[in-house]
Amino acid sequence: MTRGFSFSLPVMVVVSAIAFVYFCTVFVFIDRWFGLMTSPGIMNAVAYTGVAVMCVLNYVFAIFMDPGRVPSTFLPDIEDSKVPIHEIKRKVLLVGSLTNDSQNDKQQSADSFRILYVISGLLLVPLSMALSGLLGWHIYLILQNKTTIEYHEGVRATWLEERAGNAYKHPYDLGAYDNLTTVLGSNIICWICPTSKHIGNGLRFRTAYDGLPVTSTSK
């Protein structure tokens, strides 16, 4: 199920920023450094376009995909207490053109590139820092098999168990590899694909206690 379309200012800002960074990178920076018609330029442009397409696809799926709803009959388990600017490379050589005109054009071109570098830097530096921190945080959560809410609940649960003299263990922590396959799927090739399906029905999940023998208290 997908959500309906409606105008959203934050979404438009993000899409505009992605488009600006993409066109500046491909049609200005890569074109200026390598040349789009050269082999290094084509390889860099193709690689960057692939990354941009995956970024846009993930963002589209995040916006339009319905997260689903918990059935009314579901009872949760109770845990045990335990360019715009594109450089136009055309040079019209007119007989009798003045040297000053050429110098002015070079100065304007240099000023345009300076503005582009500044704007791109203001966008990319904080964006890269924020996304790097967010990526590291989500890698940590995946390796622990936790959601953000479970992380904060686990902090309090750990504190309570330590006060009681017990050691707390997150019940859904199956180990690093099993946590990765539980969240991202068993096929490693599909880990970068935003259309990969989830494992299970979304209501019941494996725990670290599944398959362990149940100790009996009867004598």
Automatic annotation (TrEMBL):
The chain crosses the membrane at residues 7-30, 42-64, 115-140. One of its GO terms (molecular function) is palmitoyltransferase activity. The keyword Transmembrane applies. InterPro entries: PFA4/ZDH16/20/ERF2-like (IPR039859). Keywords: Membrane, Transmembrane, Transmembrane helix. This is Protein S-acyltransferase.
